[in-house]
Amino acid sequence: MEDLLDHISAEIYQNSYVIVDNFIDENFRKALLEEQINLVNQGKFRHAAVGKGGQKQVRTEIRSDEVLWMDADDLSPLQASYWAKVEEIRKVLNQRCFLGLRSFEGHFARYPIGSFYKRHLDQFHAVPHRVVTVILYLNDSWTSEDEGVLRMYFSQEDGSERYEDILPLGGRLVVFLSGEIPHEVLPTKKERISITGWLRNID
Ligand code: OGA
Ligand code: MN
């Protein structure tokens, strides 16, 4: 974990993002996935909203995933062990990148077949406190034919833009600066399961 934390903080410092494969082991991934599928089957997921506070609204033409927010005061043992890992990331990013990260918030996300999330930034006027986005994919198997990629956009020195497509492979962790990297989830051809969270500069 030490080397990994060094790697994560160095990449965030230099490139504003990092992708870590096999961030969690297979047993842990399967257990988290099973827990999430049970919650889906209990009808606990809701259409995700966009915006914040009074401006919060369900806009399925912008995003059509379903989410279940985790309750920091009522985490399952599995969720708590994932939060403990994120806490390590929070600390190292504060030490090495001086980001002033104070808390984490996160939700499970389920993208049913055909769902997507149009291009956006995770930090915007309504949610200024999200500094670092942390996504963990839980899918059993994924190939390029399943689509549903995370497409991240990068502006280049000549003013043009390039993008990188990231498959939501189980156990893969994606970390990036919430205010710097526009991204989208392209329509998925298979149910797509993840935990998405944000390290914030408020408590
Ligand atoms: C989000 C998001 C990307 C993904 O929930 O804000 O952009 O790959 N998710 O799930
Ligand atoms: Mn996002």
Automatic annotation (TrEMBL):
Organism expressing this protein natively: Algoriphagus lacus
Protein name per UniProt: 2OG-Fe(II) oxygenase
All copies of domain Fe2OG dioxygenase, residue ranges: 97-201
GO biological process: cellular response to hypoxia
Key words of the record: Dioxygenase, Iron, Metal-binding, Oxidoreductase, Vitamin C
Record-linked PROSITE patterns: FE2OG_OXY
GO molecular function, one term: ferrous iron binding
Alphabetized InterPro entries for the sequence: HIF_prolyl_hydroxylases (IPR051559), Oxoglu/Fe-dep_dioxygenase_dom (IPR005123), Pro_4_hyd_alph (IPR006620), Pro_4_hyd_alph_FE2OG_OXY (IPR044862)
Cofactor: L-ascorbate
Alphabetical list of SMART domains matching this protein: P4Hc
